[in-house]
Design brief:
270 residues, alpha/beta, Purple Acid Phosphatase, chain A, domain 2, 7-stranded mixed sheet, 6-stranded mixed sheet, 6 helices, 26% strand, globular
Length: 270
């Protein structure tokens, strides 16, 4: 399908960090309805906490893709499940941070075609108060966007998995006019600062999580509170109960890549 100035906007849904079985089951069971209700063309989900809150497995990746996710991003817990190391080279739609050294299994970006346009997705990890320390994401992401532009890719989404708001905002500002959407992950708390920057880049500091609503970042309240009260080590089991799915929806011009609309997404399911 040829791209024209008056092409119908492409609608993209990004869902924040999926936490454990409750989060992934809620995404899998509700994604088709969400796509239909919001007329979504392309879905990206962050799956780095989907395996018991620690990493992702090949089976979970396959289940999420079959449910309708086009791309799965990760973050600092990407290698928590050992089996995923060998799975990465077989599934280009599962991304690890692009700023890992050359030779690391998997890829940090992917381009997929849709009926409306090609969509590029990049995953990067920040460096402030987050482990492991990786190469400078600002330089690597900018270079990767230039490479994608040379291939004719206009619609580009960056999942920036980072701890500090300043690092995320700086990345968004640097990429204004170069990326369609810069969305943060990692903190599991949805921020209320969705905006379209002057150059046409949609931005949200953190998409939030897809996990149990009555929890501390998806974990059992009592365990986390006990740890803070006593300072003693303990396990943090995944919480139970209703799940809140959080993320962001954008509409973009396929011919320019500019973000036309942005809205936070939140849905509580039992």
């Amino acid at each position: 399908m040829s791209e024209t100035k008056n092409a119908e906007p492409i609608r993209i849904l990004f869902l924040g960090d999926i936490v454990g079985e409750p989060g992934r089951q809620a995404v899998i069971e509700n994604l088709a309805d969400i796509r239909a209700r919001h007329q979504i063309d392309f879905v990206i989900v962050n799956g780095e906490n989907s395996a018991g809150g620690k990493g992702i497995t090949s089976k979970i990746s396959i289940d999420l893709l079959r449910a309708g996710a086009a791309v799965i991003t990760t973050g600092d817990h990407v290698w928590d499940q050992q089996e995923i190391v060998n799975y990465f080279p077989t599934e280009p739609r599962l991304l690890r941070p692009i700023n890992y050294p050359d030779g690391t299994p998997g890829n940090g970006s992917v381009v997929l075609g849709t009926e409306k346009c090609k969509v590029g997705v990049i995953q990067a990890q920040g460096r402030s108060f987050i482990q492991p320390p990786l190469d400078n994401p600002f330089i690597i992401v900018e270079n990767e966007i230039d490479r994608l532009n040379e291939q004719g890719v206009k619609v580009i989404v960056l999942d920036f998995h980072a701890e500090t708001t300043s690092e995320k905002i700086a990345m968004g500002r640097m990429l204004d006019g170069k990326a369609t959407l810069v969305v943060g992950t990692h903190t599991h708390v949805q921020t209320a600062d969705e905006t379209i920057f002057p150059g046409g880049t949609g931005y949200l500091t953190d998409a939030g999580m897809c996990g149990p609503e009555e929890s501390v970042l998806g974990r059992c309240v009592e365990s986390v509170v006990w740890r803070f009260r006593t300072g003693m080590p303990t396990r943090f089991p995944i919480a139970k109960g209703a799940v809140k799915l959080c993320g962001v929806i954008v509409a973009a011009d396929p011919s320019t890549g500019k973000c036309l609309e942005i809205e936070r997404f939140a849905l509580t399911v039992n």
